[in-house]
Amino acid sequence: MSVTTGLFYIFSAVLLVAAFQVITAKNPVHAALFLVLTFFQAAMIWMLLKAEFLSITLVLVYVGAVMVLFLFVVMMMDVNVENLRHGFWRHFPFAAIVGVIIALEMAAVLMGGFRMVDPVATVAASGQIAPVSNTRELGKLMFTQYLYPLEVAAAILLVAMIAAIALTLRARKDSKYVSPGDQVRVKSRDRMVVVKMAATQVAPEAQAVTEPEVK
User: Fold this and answer.
1) In the chain, beta strands by DSSP E
2) Which pLDDT does position 50 carry in this prediction?
3) Exposure string for 96-107, b = 16+ CB within 10 A, e = fewer
4) Correct CATH for 1-79+102-115 of 1.10.10.10, 3.30.1330.40, 2.60.40.1220, 1.20.120.1200
5) Structural domain boundaries of the chain?
6) Which of the chain's termini has less CB crowding within 10 Å, N or C?
7) What's the confidence (pLDDT) of residue 95?
8) Residues 84 and 69: beta-carbon distance below 8 Å
9) How far, CA to CA in Å, does 136 sit from each of 108, 141, 144?
């Protein structure tokens, strides 16, 4: 057994254990942390398969952004764990059957995807064999052959982001709000008003108290 094969089995075992803990953990925060561990192990497996770009993307996007946001949301919400786990074991057999079917289908489709192959190499102009960067080749494909699908996906994500902001935007009665239109239309003379006031004088009552009585 080679070192790569041994690391693959180690990462796969940790991934399966962490994934099982995600669905069995009683605390939602613990489940989110186990999901982060699952993503890390999947990234390591992709690194062994020489898919460096996908591995780094999984860590940066899912672990660094999505899961951190999800973890903050779970920690800020008052989640009733008992209500979430109500009827769990009653539906567990059906869920287990569906999970086994999905796992078998994925294993049948990806059977040949985990076979180790030699690194792809090309012949340079000088006649020497030069290694090919997976990230560079993936970038060429994304911005040449798959440019229009990439732009469509970016537009869909932008619309989804705007829709999420619009759905969660709620006007609160106790919050102070200033219209941006009013801020733009304001004039310099409206920002400060000079008021002319008389010179400060001592009040008559205070002057009578401070001055001594003359007999």
Assistant:
1) 121-123, 129-131
2) 79
3) eeeeeeeeeeee
4) 1.20.120.1200
5) 1-79+102-115, 132-170
6) C
7) 80
8) no
9) 30, 9, 12
What's the pLDDT at 112? 56
Residue 129's beta-bridge partner residues?
123
Mean pLDDT of each 10-residue bin along the chain, 215 residues long: 84 89 82 86 86 83 79 70 68 82 72 52 52 76 87 91 81 74 78 75 61 54
Q: What pLDDT, on a 0 to 100 scale, did the predictor assign at position 124?
A: 47
* Pairwise CA distance, residues 78 & 69, whole Å: 16
Quote the tokens at residue 196: 């002319």
The two tokens of residue 24 are 């069995």
CB 66 within 8 A of CB 59: no
How far apart are alpha carbons 105 and 120 in whole angstroms? 29
